Every structure is written in C-alpha cells, then in structure tokens.
Amino acid sequence: MKLTETQRKALRVTVDYTNMTDKYLGDKGYSTKKIDGFKKIAKAAHAYVADNRGKDELFMGWTELPYNQDEIVADILATAKDVRKKFDYFVVLGIGGSALGPTMAFNALCHLHYNDLPKSKRKGPKFYVEDNVDPVRMKELLDVIDPKKTCFNVISKSGATSETMAQYLIIADLLKAQGLNIRDHVIFTTDAAKGNLVKISNELGGIKSYVLPDGVGGRFSQLCPVGLLPAAVVGIDIKALLKGAAYMDKLCKSADLKKNPALLCATLQYIAMNEGKNIGVLMPYSDNLRYVADWYAQLWAESLGKNETLDGVPCNVGQTPVKALGVTDQHSQVQLYTEGPYDKVVTFLSVGSYNEKSPIPHGCENIPDVSFLGGHTMEELIQAENKATAYALTKAGRLNYTINLPEVNAFTLGQLLFLFELQTAYAGAMFNINTFNQPGVEAGKKATFALLGKPGYAEQKKELDKADSDPAYVV
Ligand code: PA5
C-alpha cells in the first residue's frame, strides 16, 4: 500500500473529546482550564517517553519497531509465502501478548468468516490462535486440522509459560507419532538467546525462529514478528501496518496534549482515574475491531495495574478495562453506562466508511415501525446508533470520547495500535510506575509451577496445598 501525503491525511485516525468537556457535560465534564492544568504533567510524561525511546533496558524497544525491521519484514514475507504454498492450516500457540495481537489483527483485517471461505477465496491457510489450555478446546482443534498440513507458530518469549509449552508438547508428540519432522511443521517466535524454545531449537538441529526483541514485552509485541508473521500468513499488508504506526508516531511528536492524540487520551484518562473513574470501556462499532478491545484490555490492565511507584511509594493504580461491542452491547450494558455509577469513561471506536454498505431494501410498507428502515444502509444504521449512544451518554452526564478511523485497513489499524501503545506509556509515566513489568502475572505462573511439581517450587507447593477451600465456607 503506497500512500501520498494527501491519502495519508484522509486516513488519519483522530480523537474527538467533545463529550468529555463541560460545554457538553455540564459540571460532570472537564473545563479547558481543568485540562490545561494537566499540561505540565502531560509534558513531563511526553519527555519521559521521548527520552527513553528504544531503550531495551526499560522495555521501550517497541517504539522503534515501525523503523528497524526492513530485513525481518522481508524474511517474514518470504516465510509467509512458503507457508501459504505448503500448508492448509496455520496455528498460533501462545497466550497473553503472544496471542491477543495475532487474533486482533486477523479479525480486523480478514474476512469475518475467513476459515469458512473456500480455499480459492482465502489469502492463506485456515487460521487458529490457541490461547487457552482448556482440554476440550485442544482436542477439538485436533479434530479440525490435519497435522500433516499444519504449520504451528509457537510464540513465547520465555519458553517457560506452562500453557504454551503444554500445547507444544502435545503437538510435538502428535507430529512424531505421525512420522513427521517437527522442524518441517514448527516456527518459533522467541527470545534471541535465552529461554527454552532456543534450547529446543538447538536440540532439534535448528527450528526456523523469529526473535521477540529484548526491549519488547508481550503486550507491546504486535508490531514485531509475534504479530507480523501470523498477519503476513493470512495476507495482511504488514508494511502498511508498520507505516500506519510510524504515521501515528509522527502525529504524536508534540508535547502539547492538544496536538498529540495519544497524550490527549492519556491525560483525559489520567484525570478521570484520579477522580475515581476506575472503569474504562472500549466500545468499537465494528465487528472487525471487536478484538481490539481484548488486545487493549491486556495492554491497559497489565501496564497500569501496579501497587508501587518507581520510587517505591505504595500505590494501587490502574483502570479496569471493559470490552463492549457496538451495537450489540447497547442491548446489554449501555443501560448501566447511562444510569449506573459515575465510575466510567467510555471510548468509542467509530468507523467513517465501512468496507461494505449493505443497503436495506424497502418493504413492510404498511408497518411504519419497520418501513422507515428501507432505503437506508446498514452502514447508516450502525453509524446512527453509534452517534445516538454517544448522545444519550452525554445527555446523562457520562464521560465519553471517540476515536475515529476513516476506514478499517492495515494503515489505520497500525495507527490505532501505536496510539494505544503511546497512550499507555504516557499514562504510566504520569503515574510514575513501571508500565512494562507484570509481577502479578508472574506470581500466578509460579504458583502453577508449584502445583504441578516443577523442581524448585516445593515450599510454595506446601503453602498452596494448605490453601485448599475451608469446608466451613463451602455451601
Ligand atoms: O504481556 C505479557 O508479558 C504477558 O501477557 C506474556 O505475553 C504472556 O504471559 C506470555 O509470556 P511468554 O511470551 O513468555 O510465553
């Protein structure tokens, strides 16, 4: 996708915060004076992120991904072509940051019923992301794929995540049992030098492997081989994805929050969080974008949910991300958003032009309740409902703002992802926390090791064995 400057501007992702202001929300909204009062803290957060860009030791390598992957992208495109030629199924084995990005991009940019399309209408093999160890799901995946015709992309930075490694053991065993060579059916995406997948690769005489760079954490990894290889396999324009990210990076150069969309979003959320708005709803009005809300939930929750500042001062910060889908959840959650507690900020993801319009035919002329729909399009209907919901929330004094995507394509998705990543980094800097670690996730991983008898966790196992339910409290 080659774009002129004019085309890029036409595809620019923008933020509309009208419905966060006192002009529209009355005393529930934020005045210009109030927002401007946060300019200094926003400027400091911007400086922190700008000064530490690309620093692996701070896990900020992700800022450079739009610029430093030419060779890797070329290699990925060649591998993807080969995978498409040889395989009918492509299965990602990973969890958390290793799975949410691939799922999100696939759903956003491929046909919503991709796997059901005939081969001639798909750009690549059937695609699955297995991010759970539900035994039923594992068995039922194996019911629908043929290992002989499957490429498994095992994605794990550590190679020590129980879920991913259990899946790997199952498929390695299966491949062996069918007389297949693991090396012909597996691609690893992992750390450059450390971790168990590196050891396994060496033992097997070298598995095709992509590097999950040192300074890139799981939840910031969609724009590195973690996300790029699966995306390329299903025919997504990964160069356009990266160009979109670079474009948003450019749009976020200013330290003035009114000129930097990511800094604006971070500041608005920061003000809200400081006022106890502990729930952040992300509500895309697009089925293609529904898993953006899942991806964002991890990014926002794991990055900001922390209990101490970088100076060691105890704090309990963060905002609970809630995933909603427009219009579906208008008929489920919007009642709560409109009349329940004043504890939320709703972010809409709106689409300017859908890739399909779906005209609604005239009919039922004697039933005005139905006939008014005829002559409109489904696009008009979903956009009207989006606008109507924002209006209703605003009338009810509820904080909401809209991120507008002129259309859904690789270039706009790249912009959106980078906007959210920068927003998260800025918000973390405002709280002065470590945005890029996840000690709470590690704690659960270690307890699982103990429960399943991993050497070195005997003490924790004893403690866990004692922690069984107390029958006095089981009803
Ligand atoms: O954001 C994160 O760091 C986590 O969600 C990890 O991606 C997840 O736990 C998987 O870890 P690994 O890549 O080591 O298998």
Give structural attributes:
single chain, 475 residues, alpha/beta, Rossmann fold, five-stranded parallel β-sheet, 20 helices, binds 5-phosphoarabinonic acid
Low-confidence stretches: none
**CATH class membership of the largest domain:** Alpha Beta
Helix-strand makeup class = alpha/beta
The CATH architecture of the largest domain: 3-Layer(aba) Sandwich
CATH topology of the largest domain: Rossmann fold
Round the mean pLDDT to the nearest integer and report it.
96
Care to describe what's here?
With 475 residues, the protein is of the alpha/beta class. It folds into two domains: 5-54 and 240-431, Rossmann fold; 62-239, 3-Layer(aba) Sandwich (Rossmann fold). It has 20 helices and twelve strands. The strands form three sheets. A five-stranded mixed sheet has the order 1-12-11-7-10, sandwiched between helices. It has a five-stranded parallel sheet with strand order 3-2-4-5-6, sandwiched between helices. The protein has a two-stranded antiparallel sheet with strand order 8-9. The mean pLDDT is 96. The structure holds 5-phosphoarabinonic acid. 5-phosphoarabinonic acid binds next to loops. Residues 95-98, 156-158, 161, 164, 217-219, 302, 438, 441 line the site of 5-phosphoarabinonic acid (PA5).
Summed up:
This protein has 475 residues and is an alpha/beta fold. It contains 20 helices and twelve strands. It has a five-stranded mixed sheet with strand order 1-12-11-7-10, sandwiched between helices. The chain has a five-stranded parallel sheet with strand order 3-2-4-5-6, with helices on both faces.
